[in-house]
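ugh ok so i messed up the first submission bc i forgot one of the chains. this is the corrected input, ALL of the components this time, i swear. 535 residues overall. if the numbers dont match what u have on ur side tell me asap before i send this to the collaborators (the ones from the other lab, u know who)
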Amino acid sequence: MEDRQQWGSRYGFILAAVGSAIGLGNIWRFPAVAYENGGGAFFIPYLIALLTAGIPLLILEFTIGHKYRGSAPLSYFRLHKNAEWLGWWQVFVAFVISTYYAVIIAWALKYSIYGLNLTWGDKPSDFFYGEVLKLSAKPGDVGGLVHGVVIALLLVWVVTLSVLYKGVSKGIEKFNKIFIPALVVMFLVIVLRALTLDGAADGLNTFFKPNWDAIGDGKVWVAAYGQIFFSLSIAFAIMVTYSSYLPKKSDINNNAFITGFANSGFELLAGIGVFAALGFMAAQQGVPVDKVVKGGIGLAFEVFPAIINEFPGFNGFFGTLFFLTLVFAGMTSLISIVETYVAALQDKFGISRTKAVLFGGGVASVISLLFATEGGLYILDITDYFINNFGITLAGLVEVVLVAWVFKQLRGLQNHANAISDLRTGLWWKACLGIVTPLLLGYMMFDAIKQNIAKNYGDYPTELIITYGLAVAVGVIILGFALSFVKGKKNHLETAKKEAS
Amino acid sequence: MSASAITMMVIGMVILWGGLLASIANVVVVSRKK
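and heres the new structure output, hopefully the right one now
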Protein backbone atom coordinates (compact mmCIF):
# COMPACT_ATOMS: atom_id res chain seq x y z
CA MET A 1 0.00 0.00 0.00
CA GLU A 2 1.23 3.50 -0.88
CA ASP A 3 2.98 5.88 1.52
CA ARG A 4 0.53 8.06 3.38
CA GLN A 5 0.89 11.19 5.39
CA GLN A 6 1.02 10.55 9.14
CA TRP A 7 0.13 12.33 12.36
CA GLY A 8 3.20 13.74 14.08
CA SER A 9 2.19 12.29 17.45
CA ARG A 10 -0.49 10.30 19.22
CA TYR A 11 -1.45 13.47 21.10
CA GLY A 12 -1.96 15.21 17.75
CA PHE A 13 -4.27 12.47 16.46
CA ILE A 14 -6.34 12.41 19.65
CA LEU A 15 -6.73 16.20 19.62
CA ALA A 16 -7.78 16.09 15.96
CA ALA A 17 -10.32 13.30 16.62
CA VAL A 18 -11.63 15.09 19.72
CA GLY A 19 -11.70 18.35 17.75
CA SER A 20 -13.81 16.68 15.10
CA ALA A 21 -16.21 15.18 17.64
CA ILE A 22 -16.58 18.35 19.72
CA GLY A 23 -18.66 20.62 17.57
CA LEU A 24 -21.58 22.98 17.77
CA GLY A 25 -23.94 20.15 18.77
CA ASN A 26 -22.02 19.56 22.01
CA ILE A 27 -22.72 23.12 23.10
CA TRP A 28 -26.24 23.73 21.87
CA ARG A 29 -27.79 20.29 21.29
CA PHE A 30 -26.79 18.14 24.28
CA PRO A 31 -28.05 20.42 27.12
CA ALA A 32 -31.53 20.71 25.58
CA VAL A 33 -31.75 17.01 24.65
CA ALA A 34 -30.75 15.95 28.18
CA TYR A 35 -33.21 18.37 29.78
CA GLU A 36 -36.11 17.27 27.56
CA ASN A 37 -35.41 13.57 28.14
CA GLY A 38 -35.41 13.12 31.89
CA GLY A 39 -32.77 15.61 33.10
CA GLY A 40 -30.36 13.81 35.45
CA ALA A 41 -32.03 10.48 34.67
CA PHE A 42 -30.98 10.93 31.02
CA PHE A 43 -27.39 10.19 32.05
CA ILE A 44 -28.24 6.51 32.56
CA PRO A 45 -29.29 5.80 28.92
CA TYR A 46 -26.67 8.28 27.71
CA LEU A 47 -23.80 6.46 29.46
CA ILE A 48 -25.10 3.09 28.30
CA ALA A 49 -25.31 4.45 24.74
CA LEU A 50 -21.73 5.72 24.98
CA LEU A 51 -20.44 2.31 26.09
CA THR A 52 -22.60 0.13 23.84
CA ALA A 53 -22.64 2.19 20.62
CA GLY A 54 -20.43 5.28 20.71
CA ILE A 55 -17.10 3.81 21.76
CA PRO A 56 -17.60 0.48 19.90
CA LEU A 57 -18.36 2.41 16.68
CA LEU A 58 -15.31 4.62 17.21
CA ILE A 59 -13.15 1.51 17.64
CA LEU A 60 -14.68 0.04 14.47
CA GLU A 61 -13.99 3.14 12.34
CA PHE A 62 -10.52 3.70 13.81
CA THR A 63 -9.71 0.07 13.00
CA ILE A 64 -11.04 0.21 9.42
CA GLY A 65 -9.05 3.37 8.69
CA HIS A 66 -5.91 2.07 10.36
CA LYS A 67 -6.01 -1.42 8.86
CA TYR A 68 -6.81 -0.38 5.28
CA ARG A 69 -4.97 2.95 5.35
CA GLY A 70 -7.11 4.92 2.96
CA SER A 71 -9.87 7.50 2.68
CA ALA A 72 -13.32 6.06 3.38
CA PRO A 73 -14.02 4.81 -0.21
CA LEU A 74 -10.59 3.21 -0.49
CA SER A 75 -10.73 1.70 3.01
CA TYR A 76 -14.17 0.19 2.43
CA PHE A 77 -13.02 -1.11 -0.93
CA ARG A 78 -10.05 -2.77 0.69
CA LEU A 79 -12.40 -4.21 3.33
CA HIS A 80 -14.55 -5.70 0.57
CA LYS A 81 -14.45 -5.18 -3.19
CA ASN A 82 -18.18 -4.37 -3.27
CA ALA A 83 -18.13 -1.77 -0.51
CA GLU A 84 -16.50 1.26 -2.13
CA TRP A 85 -19.90 2.91 -2.69
CA LEU A 86 -20.50 2.96 1.08
CA GLY A 87 -17.37 5.05 1.52
CA TRP A 88 -18.43 7.46 -1.25
CA TRP A 89 -21.93 7.71 0.20
CA GLN A 90 -20.47 8.74 3.56
CA VAL A 91 -18.10 11.16 1.84
CA PHE A 92 -21.03 12.83 0.04
CA VAL A 93 -22.93 13.07 3.33
CA ALA A 94 -19.86 14.86 4.76
CA PHE A 95 -19.74 17.09 1.66
CA VAL A 96 -23.35 18.22 2.13
CA ILE A 97 -22.83 18.86 5.84
CA SER A 98 -19.73 20.95 5.15
CA THR A 99 -21.69 23.27 2.85
CA TYR A 100 -24.09 24.44 5.57
CA TYR A 101 -21.86 23.92 8.62
CA ALA A 102 -19.49 26.57 7.23
CA VAL A 103 -22.39 29.04 7.11
CA ILE A 104 -23.25 28.51 10.80
CA ILE A 105 -19.59 29.13 11.70
CA ALA A 106 -19.77 32.30 9.61
CA TRP A 107 -22.73 33.53 11.72
CA ALA A 108 -20.77 32.75 14.92
CA LEU A 109 -17.75 34.59 13.51
CA LYS A 110 -19.87 37.68 12.89
CA TYR A 111 -21.30 37.39 16.41
CA SER A 112 -17.82 37.17 17.96
CA ILE A 113 -17.32 40.71 16.63
CA TYR A 114 -20.86 41.86 17.50
CA GLY A 115 -20.18 40.63 21.04
CA LEU A 116 -17.56 43.35 21.61
CA ASN A 117 -20.18 46.09 21.85
CA LEU A 118 -23.35 43.95 22.08
CA THR A 119 -24.46 45.06 18.62
CA TRP A 120 -27.53 42.79 18.86
CA GLY A 121 -29.19 45.28 21.24
CA ASP A 122 -32.27 44.61 23.38
CA LYS A 123 -34.01 42.35 20.88
CA PRO A 124 -31.50 39.65 19.88
CA SER A 125 -34.14 37.57 18.03
CA ASP A 126 -35.16 40.45 15.77
CA PHE A 127 -31.52 41.31 15.21
CA PHE A 128 -30.57 37.73 14.26
CA TYR A 129 -33.41 37.01 11.84
CA GLY A 130 -33.83 40.56 10.56
CA GLU A 131 -30.43 42.29 10.51
CA VAL A 132 -28.03 39.35 10.26
CA LEU A 133 -29.88 36.75 8.17
CA LYS A 134 -32.36 39.13 6.49
CA LEU A 135 -34.64 36.09 6.60
CA SER A 136 -37.23 35.95 3.82
CA ALA A 137 -40.90 36.02 4.80
CA LYS A 138 -41.64 32.41 3.94
CA PRO A 139 -39.78 29.17 3.16
CA GLY A 140 -39.10 28.80 -0.55
CA ASP A 141 -38.29 32.49 -1.13
CA VAL A 142 -34.55 32.08 -1.66
CA GLY A 143 -33.92 35.81 -2.20
CA GLY A 144 -30.50 37.33 -2.78
CA LEU A 145 -27.17 36.72 -1.09
CA VAL A 146 -26.70 38.27 2.35
CA HIS A 147 -23.41 40.08 1.86
CA GLY A 148 -22.40 40.26 5.53
CA VAL A 149 -22.73 36.47 5.84
CA VAL A 150 -20.96 35.88 2.52
CA ILE A 151 -17.87 37.84 3.65
CA ALA A 152 -17.62 35.85 6.90
CA LEU A 153 -18.28 32.62 4.96
CA LEU A 154 -15.43 33.43 2.58
CA LEU A 155 -13.10 33.86 5.55
CA VAL A 156 -14.21 30.51 7.04
CA TRP A 157 -13.47 28.73 3.76
CA VAL A 158 -10.10 30.44 3.27
CA VAL A 159 -8.93 29.38 6.75
CA THR A 160 -10.30 25.83 6.36
CA LEU A 161 -8.75 25.23 2.96
CA SER A 162 -5.44 26.82 4.01
CA VAL A 163 -5.18 24.42 6.96
CA LEU A 164 -6.01 21.44 4.74
CA TYR A 165 -3.54 22.58 2.06
CA LYS A 166 -0.76 22.41 4.68
CA GLY A 167 -1.42 18.71 5.15
CA VAL A 168 -2.13 16.32 8.00
CA SER A 169 0.71 17.01 10.41
CA LYS A 170 1.60 20.60 9.54
CA GLY A 171 -1.97 21.71 8.94
CA ILE A 172 -4.73 19.74 10.69
CA GLU A 173 -2.64 18.56 13.65
CA LYS A 174 -1.05 21.96 14.30
CA PHE A 175 -4.42 23.74 14.08
CA ASN A 176 -6.02 21.35 16.56
CA LYS A 177 -3.05 21.52 18.94
CA ILE A 178 -3.65 25.25 19.23
CA PHE A 179 -7.41 25.55 19.04
CA ILE A 180 -8.65 22.58 21.11
CA PRO A 181 -6.74 23.54 24.29
CA ALA A 182 -7.79 27.16 23.64
CA LEU A 183 -11.43 26.07 23.25
CA VAL A 184 -11.37 24.13 26.54
CA VAL A 185 -9.74 26.99 28.48
CA MET A 186 -12.13 29.58 27.03
CA PHE A 187 -15.16 27.42 27.71
CA LEU A 188 -13.98 26.78 31.29
CA VAL A 189 -13.78 30.55 31.84
CA ILE A 190 -17.38 30.91 30.62
CA VAL A 191 -18.61 27.99 32.76
CA LEU A 192 -16.86 29.29 35.89
CA ARG A 193 -18.37 32.74 35.36
CA ALA A 194 -21.82 31.25 34.73
CA LEU A 195 -21.59 29.20 37.93
CA THR A 196 -21.01 32.34 40.01
CA LEU A 197 -24.08 34.17 38.66
CA ASP A 198 -27.34 34.55 40.61
CA GLY A 199 -29.75 31.74 39.83
CA ALA A 200 -27.04 29.33 38.58
CA ALA A 201 -28.00 26.73 41.21
CA ASP A 202 -31.63 26.81 40.05
CA GLY A 203 -30.45 26.27 36.48
CA LEU A 204 -28.32 23.28 37.47
CA ASN A 205 -31.17 21.88 39.55
CA THR A 206 -33.46 22.06 36.50
CA PHE A 207 -30.83 20.34 34.36
CA PHE A 208 -29.82 17.55 36.74
CA LYS A 209 -33.10 16.88 38.61
CA PRO A 210 -33.87 13.30 37.56
CA ASN A 211 -37.25 12.34 36.16
CA TRP A 212 -37.02 8.57 36.70
CA ASP A 213 -40.24 7.87 34.77
CA ALA A 214 -38.38 8.91 31.61
CA ILE A 215 -36.13 5.83 31.85
CA GLY A 216 -39.08 3.64 30.88
CA ASP A 217 -39.83 5.72 27.79
CA GLY A 218 -38.36 4.27 24.59
CA LYS A 219 -38.09 7.76 23.04
CA VAL A 220 -35.61 8.77 25.76
CA TRP A 221 -33.36 5.84 24.87
CA VAL A 222 -33.58 6.72 21.18
CA ALA A 223 -32.67 10.32 22.08
CA ALA A 224 -29.67 9.10 24.10
CA TYR A 225 -28.35 6.86 21.31
CA GLY A 226 -29.08 9.63 18.78
CA GLN A 227 -27.11 12.18 20.80
CA ILE A 228 -24.12 9.84 21.13
CA PHE A 229 -24.32 8.88 17.46
CA PHE A 230 -24.61 12.42 16.03
CA SER A 231 -22.06 13.85 18.44
CA LEU A 232 -19.12 11.54 17.76
CA SER A 233 -18.56 12.24 14.03
CA ILE A 234 -19.23 8.60 13.19
CA ALA A 235 -20.68 7.16 9.96
CA PHE A 236 -19.67 10.01 7.75
CA ALA A 237 -16.14 9.05 6.82
CA ILE A 238 -14.26 11.31 9.25
CA MET A 239 -12.87 8.82 11.76
CA VAL A 240 -11.94 6.32 9.02
CA THR A 241 -10.02 9.06 7.20
CA TYR A 242 -8.30 10.43 10.32
CA SER A 243 -7.23 7.00 11.58
CA SER A 244 -5.77 6.14 8.16
CA TYR A 245 -2.99 8.62 9.01
CA LEU A 246 -2.03 6.76 12.23
CA PRO A 247 1.35 5.04 12.45
CA LYS A 248 1.25 1.25 12.19
CA LYS A 249 1.76 0.78 15.93
CA SER A 250 -1.14 2.68 17.46
CA ASP A 251 -3.30 1.87 20.48
CA ILE A 252 -6.60 2.07 18.62
CA ASN A 253 -8.86 0.90 21.44
CA ASN A 254 -7.62 3.33 24.07
CA ASN A 255 -7.64 6.18 21.54
CA ALA A 256 -11.35 5.47 21.02
CA PHE A 257 -12.01 5.53 24.78
CA ILE A 258 -10.16 8.85 25.16
CA THR A 259 -12.03 10.39 22.21
CA GLY A 260 -15.44 9.14 23.39
CA PHE A 261 -14.99 10.25 27.01
CA ALA A 262 -13.45 13.60 26.01
CA ASN A 263 -16.41 14.33 23.75
CA SER A 264 -19.00 13.36 26.36
CA GLY A 265 -17.03 15.10 29.13
CA PHE A 266 -17.16 18.31 27.11
CA GLU A 267 -20.90 17.87 26.58
CA LEU A 268 -21.39 17.60 30.34
CA LEU A 269 -19.34 20.77 30.82
CA ALA A 270 -21.47 22.51 28.19
CA GLY A 271 -24.65 21.37 29.95
CA ILE A 272 -23.40 22.80 33.25
CA GLY A 273 -22.41 26.12 31.65
CA VAL A 274 -25.56 26.51 29.56
CA PHE A 275 -27.99 25.71 32.39
CA ALA A 276 -26.13 27.85 34.93
CA ALA A 277 -26.49 30.74 32.45
CA LEU A 278 -30.16 29.89 31.80
CA GLY A 279 -30.76 29.86 35.58
CA PHE A 280 -29.28 33.36 35.73
CA MET A 281 -31.50 34.59 32.90
CA ALA A 282 -34.61 33.08 34.53
CA ALA A 283 -33.71 34.80 37.84
CA GLN A 284 -33.32 38.15 36.05
CA GLN A 285 -36.70 37.78 34.37
CA GLY A 286 -38.41 36.35 37.45
CA VAL A 287 -39.64 33.25 35.60
CA PRO A 288 -38.99 29.49 36.12
CA VAL A 289 -35.92 28.11 34.33
CA ASP A 290 -38.02 25.85 32.11
CA LYS A 291 -39.56 28.96 30.51
CA VAL A 292 -36.21 30.05 29.06
CA VAL A 293 -34.80 26.68 27.91
CA LYS A 294 -33.99 26.48 24.21
CA GLY A 295 -31.65 24.41 22.04
CA GLY A 296 -29.93 24.73 18.68
CA ILE A 297 -29.57 27.97 16.77
CA GLY A 298 -32.13 29.67 19.01
CA LEU A 299 -30.00 29.01 22.12
CA ALA A 300 -26.83 30.38 20.54
CA PHE A 301 -28.09 33.39 18.61
CA GLU A 302 -31.22 34.43 20.53
CA VAL A 303 -30.98 33.27 24.15
CA PHE A 304 -27.24 33.69 24.74
CA PRO A 305 -27.04 37.28 23.48
CA ALA A 306 -29.95 38.06 25.85
CA ILE A 307 -28.03 36.40 28.72
CA ILE A 308 -24.85 38.33 27.86
CA ASN A 309 -26.88 41.56 27.95
CA GLU A 310 -27.82 40.81 31.56
CA PHE A 311 -24.27 39.99 32.74
CA PRO A 312 -23.23 42.19 35.67
CA GLY A 313 -19.90 43.13 34.01
CA PHE A 314 -17.46 42.45 31.16
CA ASN A 315 -20.44 41.82 28.85
CA GLY A 316 -18.43 42.47 25.69
CA PHE A 317 -15.64 40.16 26.80
CA PHE A 318 -17.99 37.26 27.57
CA GLY A 319 -20.05 37.89 24.44
CA THR A 320 -17.01 37.61 22.22
CA LEU A 321 -15.59 34.70 24.22
CA PHE A 322 -18.79 32.65 23.88
CA PHE A 323 -19.04 33.08 20.12
CA LEU A 324 -15.34 32.43 19.66
CA THR A 325 -15.80 29.06 21.40
CA LEU A 326 -18.49 28.29 18.81
CA VAL A 327 -16.11 29.33 16.01
CA PHE A 328 -13.27 27.17 17.38
CA ALA A 329 -15.52 24.14 18.02
CA GLY A 330 -17.03 24.54 14.55
CA MET A 331 -13.75 25.06 12.69
CA THR A 332 -12.04 21.96 14.11
CA SER A 333 -15.08 19.93 13.05
CA LEU A 334 -15.39 21.55 9.61
CA ILE A 335 -11.74 20.82 8.83
CA SER A 336 -12.29 17.13 9.59
CA ILE A 337 -15.45 17.06 7.46
CA VAL A 338 -13.74 18.61 4.42
CA GLU A 339 -10.69 16.34 4.85
CA THR A 340 -12.93 13.34 4.07
CA TYR A 341 -13.46 14.43 0.45
CA VAL A 342 -9.99 15.89 0.01
CA ALA A 343 -8.52 12.48 0.95
CA ALA A 344 -11.09 10.59 -1.15
CA LEU A 345 -10.33 12.68 -4.27
CA GLN A 346 -6.59 12.16 -3.80
CA ASP A 347 -6.94 8.39 -3.39
CA LYS A 348 -9.35 7.91 -6.25
CA PHE A 349 -7.85 10.17 -8.90
CA GLY A 350 -4.23 10.30 -7.77
CA ILE A 351 -4.25 14.09 -7.76
CA SER A 352 -2.12 16.31 -5.52
CA ARG A 353 -3.40 17.55 -2.19
CA THR A 354 -3.45 21.11 -3.54
CA LYS A 355 -5.73 20.13 -6.45
CA ALA A 356 -8.00 18.07 -4.18
CA VAL A 357 -8.33 20.95 -1.70
CA LEU A 358 -8.99 23.50 -4.45
CA PHE A 359 -11.50 21.33 -6.31
CA GLY A 360 -13.36 19.82 -3.35
CA GLY A 361 -13.26 22.95 -1.23
CA GLY A 362 -14.02 25.16 -4.22
CA VAL A 363 -17.18 23.27 -5.18
CA ALA A 364 -18.32 23.08 -1.54
CA SER A 365 -17.76 26.79 -0.96
CA VAL A 366 -19.78 27.74 -4.06
CA ILE A 367 -22.68 25.48 -3.02
CA SER A 368 -22.53 26.88 0.53
CA LEU A 369 -23.59 30.26 -0.89
CA LEU A 370 -27.10 28.80 -1.18
CA PHE A 371 -27.29 28.82 2.63
CA ALA A 372 -26.06 32.42 2.77
CA THR A 373 -29.15 33.69 0.95
CA GLU A 374 -32.17 35.35 2.54
CA GLY A 375 -34.03 32.04 2.50
CA GLY A 376 -30.93 30.04 3.44
CA LEU A 377 -31.99 29.25 7.00
CA TYR A 378 -35.08 27.35 5.83
CA ILE A 379 -33.01 25.31 3.36
CA LEU A 380 -30.36 24.68 6.03
CA ASP A 381 -32.97 23.46 8.50
CA ILE A 382 -34.50 20.98 6.02
CA THR A 383 -31.18 19.72 4.65
CA ASP A 384 -29.67 19.33 8.14
CA TYR A 385 -32.64 17.30 9.36
CA PHE A 386 -32.72 14.95 6.37
CA ILE A 387 -28.97 14.47 6.01
CA ASN A 388 -28.75 13.61 9.72
CA ASN A 389 -31.76 11.33 9.95
CA PHE A 390 -31.67 9.73 6.51
CA GLY A 391 -27.99 10.25 5.70
CA ILE A 392 -25.84 9.64 8.76
CA THR A 393 -28.26 7.28 10.54
CA LEU A 394 -28.93 5.16 7.48
CA ALA A 395 -25.25 5.14 6.46
CA GLY A 396 -24.34 4.06 10.01
CA LEU A 397 -26.95 1.30 9.94
CA VAL A 398 -25.76 0.03 6.55
CA GLU A 399 -22.13 0.23 7.74
CA VAL A 400 -22.63 -1.98 10.79
CA VAL A 401 -24.93 -4.44 9.00
CA LEU A 402 -22.51 -4.85 6.07
CA VAL A 403 -19.37 -5.11 8.20
CA ALA A 404 -20.87 -7.36 10.90
CA TRP A 405 -23.36 -9.53 9.03
CA VAL A 406 -22.82 -9.39 5.25
CA PHE A 407 -19.01 -9.23 4.97
CA LYS A 408 -18.50 -10.80 8.43
CA GLN A 409 -15.41 -8.71 9.12
CA LEU A 410 -15.81 -8.05 12.85
CA ARG A 411 -13.49 -10.83 13.98
CA GLY A 412 -10.70 -9.79 11.61
CA LEU A 413 -11.01 -6.13 12.59
CA GLN A 414 -11.08 -7.02 16.27
CA ASN A 415 -7.94 -9.13 15.91
CA HIS A 416 -6.21 -6.24 14.13
CA ALA A 417 -7.13 -3.71 16.84
CA ASN A 418 -6.33 -6.04 19.74
CA ALA A 419 -2.94 -6.95 18.29
CA ILE A 420 -1.75 -3.34 18.50
CA SER A 421 -3.77 -2.07 21.48
CA ASP A 422 -3.03 -2.28 25.17
CA LEU A 423 -6.74 -2.43 25.97
CA ARG A 424 -8.34 -5.47 24.35
CA THR A 425 -11.97 -5.84 23.39
CA GLY A 426 -13.88 -9.10 23.71
CA LEU A 427 -17.40 -10.34 23.14
CA TRP A 428 -18.78 -6.99 24.39
CA TRP A 429 -17.51 -5.21 21.25
CA LYS A 430 -18.91 -7.74 18.79
CA ALA A 431 -22.27 -7.91 20.59
CA CYS A 432 -22.58 -4.12 20.64
CA LEU A 433 -21.84 -3.76 16.93
CA GLY A 434 -23.57 -6.91 15.74
CA ILE A 435 -26.76 -6.60 17.77
CA VAL A 436 -27.25 -3.46 19.89
CA THR A 437 -26.17 -0.80 17.35
CA PRO A 438 -28.08 -2.21 14.32
CA LEU A 439 -31.24 -2.59 16.42
CA LEU A 440 -31.04 0.94 17.80
CA LEU A 441 -30.14 2.57 14.47
CA GLY A 442 -32.85 0.51 12.76
CA TYR A 443 -35.40 1.73 15.29
CA MET A 444 -34.21 5.34 14.87
CA MET A 445 -34.71 5.03 11.11
CA PHE A 446 -38.16 3.47 11.56
CA ASP A 447 -39.14 6.22 14.00
CA ALA A 448 -37.93 8.98 11.64
CA ILE A 449 -39.80 7.46 8.68
CA LYS A 450 -42.97 7.11 10.77
CA GLN A 451 -42.81 10.74 11.89
CA ASN A 452 -42.24 12.02 8.35
CA ILE A 453 -45.11 10.00 6.91
CA ALA A 454 -47.43 11.43 9.57
CA LYS A 455 -46.33 15.03 9.12
CA ASN A 456 -43.90 17.10 7.06
CA TYR A 457 -40.80 18.04 9.06
CA GLY A 458 -41.22 21.53 10.50
CA ASP A 459 -44.52 21.87 8.57
CA TYR A 460 -42.53 22.87 5.50
CA PRO A 461 -44.29 22.59 2.09
CA THR A 462 -43.87 19.16 0.49
CA GLU A 463 -42.00 20.52 -2.56
CA LEU A 464 -39.31 22.00 -0.28
CA ILE A 465 -39.05 18.77 1.71
CA ILE A 466 -38.54 16.86 -1.56
CA THR A 467 -36.08 19.35 -3.08
CA TYR A 468 -33.83 20.12 -0.13
CA GLY A 469 -34.43 17.05 2.02
CA LEU A 470 -35.35 13.81 0.28
CA ALA A 471 -33.56 14.60 -3.00
CA VAL A 472 -30.35 15.38 -1.09
CA ALA A 473 -30.56 12.27 1.10
CA VAL A 474 -31.28 10.01 -1.89
CA GLY A 475 -28.88 11.92 -4.15
CA VAL A 476 -25.86 11.21 -1.94
CA ILE A 477 -26.58 7.46 -2.19
CA ILE A 478 -26.86 7.60 -5.99
CA LEU A 479 -23.69 9.68 -6.24
CA GLY A 480 -21.96 7.19 -3.94
CA PHE A 481 -22.79 4.31 -6.28
CA ALA A 482 -21.90 6.39 -9.35
CA LEU A 483 -18.45 7.33 -8.06
CA SER A 484 -17.67 3.73 -7.19
CA PHE A 485 -18.09 2.87 -10.89
CA VAL A 486 -15.88 5.72 -12.10
CA LYS A 487 -12.48 4.52 -13.18
CA GLY A 488 -9.82 5.73 -10.76
CA LYS A 489 -6.21 6.63 -11.33
CA LYS A 490 -3.94 3.67 -11.96
CA ASN A 491 -1.52 2.85 -9.14
CA HIS A 492 -4.08 4.07 -6.63
CA LEU A 493 -7.51 2.54 -6.48
CA GLU A 494 -6.73 -0.04 -9.14
CA THR A 495 -3.62 -1.13 -7.29
CA ALA A 496 -5.80 -1.54 -4.29
CA LYS A 497 -8.32 -3.54 -6.33
CA LYS A 498 -5.60 -5.96 -7.34
CA GLU A 499 -4.46 -6.26 -3.74
CA ALA A 500 -8.01 -6.93 -2.62
CA SER A 501 -8.68 -9.56 -5.26
CA MET B 1 -30.05 22.25 44.40
CA SER B 2 -31.90 19.12 45.44
CA ALA B 3 -29.99 16.08 46.74
CA SER B 4 -31.07 13.99 43.73
CA ALA B 5 -29.84 16.67 41.29
CA ILE B 6 -26.47 16.89 43.06
CA THR B 7 -26.19 13.09 43.03
CA MET B 8 -26.80 12.90 39.27
CA MET B 9 -24.35 15.73 38.62
CA VAL B 10 -21.65 13.97 40.64
CA ILE B 11 -22.36 10.62 38.93
CA GLY B 12 -22.07 12.25 35.50
CA MET B 13 -18.83 14.00 36.43
CA VAL B 14 -17.25 10.92 38.01
CA ILE B 15 -18.07 8.61 35.09
CA LEU B 16 -17.39 10.96 32.16
CA TRP B 17 -14.47 12.99 33.48
CA GLY B 18 -13.19 10.01 35.50
CA GLY B 19 -13.41 7.82 32.40
CA LEU B 20 -11.40 10.37 30.44
CA LEU B 21 -8.74 10.64 33.17
CA ALA B 22 -8.54 6.84 33.50
CA SER B 23 -8.07 6.44 29.72
CA ILE B 24 -5.31 9.07 29.71
CA ALA B 25 -3.71 7.53 32.83
CA ASN B 26 -3.65 4.18 31.04
CA VAL B 27 -1.57 5.71 28.24
CA VAL B 28 0.91 7.08 30.77
CA VAL B 29 1.13 3.81 32.73
CA VAL B 30 1.62 1.71 29.60
CA SER B 31 4.26 4.05 28.15
CA ARG B 32 6.20 3.96 31.45
CA LYS B 33 6.14 0.15 31.50
CA LYS B 34 7.69 0.13 28.03
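quick check: Chain A touches chain B at residues 10, 39-41, 43, 47, 201, 204-205, 207-210, 251, 254, 257-258, 261-262, 264-265, 268, 272, 422-423 (CB under 8 Å). that seems consistent at least. Chain A has a mean pLDDT of 94.
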